[in-house]
Specification:
The chain contains 9 helices and 7 strands, in the order ααααβαβαββαβααββ. With 241 residues, the protein is of the alpha/beta class. It has a single domain, classed as Rossmann fold (3-Layer(aba) Sandwich). Helix content is 34%, strand content 25%. Bound molecules: S-adenosylmethionine.
């Protein structure tokens, strides 16, 4: 297969190192795979276009993506980006940021920001904050979510798409994963410092008023019979805040 992204696959198999700061580890992990990143992740990171379709930004919206990587979500937004008055792409990994800057250089409303998700601040609040497959890679994900809430204006929308495992006893309106599923997927992804959690969805319900949720399964590249669990969540910040 001539189009196999060998460098990406090799780096994923070696796993994410733990030799320096979080930013350094991310750079060691992503830099060798950057050329093939988008093509491979198109086959792995499911539900990203659906999240974008759900968020429905109004004219002049101010939008933030936390853990924006190469800026791949720009393609899913398409012409809708022209509605945004400002679009911040926030990430901590220099290799990813280089690609995001190059991809967005002709889109004046985009600002690419090098910052840890737990530290990113703005003076003026925004209409939408979303995380696409980044929450599971952020060590202090709870702090990152709390920080995201401070960015949002009352009534603003928080969107997440990511891998997850269910709680041991999931609420009746949520999918229940068996013990093997929960064990298998958390171990499979932890090799690359992607930490699947049963705590993300409950925390999102506490922070926001849920508007839309879907829980599903998506195939892995070259392993079409193996499906990993992911969810898409959209919630709204209370007007009262
Ligand atoms: C799997 S990639 C997803 C990229 C992009 N959102 C997408 O959907 O293609 C996860 C991203 O989260 C970023 N990330 C991990 N920890 C972070 C942190 N603490 N602060 C900001 N970004 C972080 C990584 O550098 C990486 O670009």
């Amino acid at each position: 297969m001539p189009d196999l992204p060998i460098k990406s696959i090799w780096r994923i198999l070696k796993g994410m190192p733990n030799v320096g700061s979080h930013a350094q580890n991310l750079d060691i992990f992503y830099r060798p795979q950057i050329a093939g990143y988008d093509a491979l992740r198109k086959r792995l990171l499911h539900g990203r276009k659906t999240l974008v379709d759900w968020l429905e930004p109004s004219e002049g919206a101010r939008v933030v993506e936390i853990g924006a990587g190469t800026g791949a979500m720009i393609e899913f937004w398409g012409n809708r980006i022209n509605r945004f008055s400002k679009f911040y792409l926030v990430d901590l990994c220099p290799a990813m940021l280089e690609m995001a800057r190059s991809r967005s250089r002709h889109i004046p409303q985009i600002e690419v920001v090098e910052c840890d998700a737990t530290q990113f601040q703005l003076i003026e609040p925004v209409d939408i904050v979303y995380f696409s497959y980044s929450l599971t890679m952020i060590p202090d994900w709870e702090k990152a979510l709390n920080q995201a809430m401070t960015l949002l204006k009352p009534g603003g929308k928080l969107g997440i798409v990511d891998f997850y495992i269910s709680e041991k006893k999931a609420a009746s309106n949520h999918i229940q994963h068996g013990a093997f599923t929960r064990w298998f997927w958390s171990h499979w992804f932890s090799h690359d410092q992607v930490h699947l959690s049963a705590d993300h969805l409950p925390k999102l319900h506490i922070l926001t008023q849920p508007l839309k949720i879907t829980e599903s399964w998506g195939p892995l590249p070259w392993l079409p019979l193996i499906h990993a669990p992911f969810y898409i969540y959209m919630g709204q910040k209370s007007d009262a805040v």
